[in-house]
Amino acid sequence: MFRSQIAVVAVALSLVAVSPVQAQSVKLKDLGVKGRLVSATCSPSTISCVLIDLSAVAPDEFFYVTQICMTQVTGTGMGYRVQTTSGLTYAQAGSPFNTECFSYEPALVVTANQTLSCIQQSSGAIGNCTVTGVLSAK
Q: Which domain holds residue 86?
């Protein structure tokens, strides 16, 4: 697999809510993958904010995206999109006073040297993005 590619893998796990600074150990038995369940939230104050930064992890580490949620409390049109450094868009949504979540089963895989960012698409949109997944060395 090339580092800049996204691979789709089957991830069988039940997610539990954790705050953005907490992580739990999990084992993805079907894939033989061990990792930490991670949830991160950010609110773009200008154009974008970083949700997950894999620029400092080892080349064999991956982030398995299992869910992305976007909440828009003001503004009009499509409020936010979540994309990688290389420009791959994982989700885009948003309408005022609405939360939209996208679950990925199988999961999406983000490779090392990438970031996942929440990008504001509509002028005046105020809200946030949350990504949940597993950080793993396999």
A: 8-136
Residue 100 has pLDDT above 80, yes or no: yes
**pLDDT for 115:** 92
pLDDT at 122: 73
Residue 107 belongs to domain with CATH number: 2.60.120.340
In a domain, residue 3? The reply is no
**72 or 131: whose pLDDT is higher?**
131
β-pairing, 33-42 vs 126-136, is antiparallel
Residue type, 54: L
Total Cβ atoms within 10 A of residue 132: 23
The number of beta carbons lying within 10 Å of the beta carbon of residue 112 is 16
Number of domains present in the structure of the chain? 1
Residue corresponding to tokens 């946030």: 128
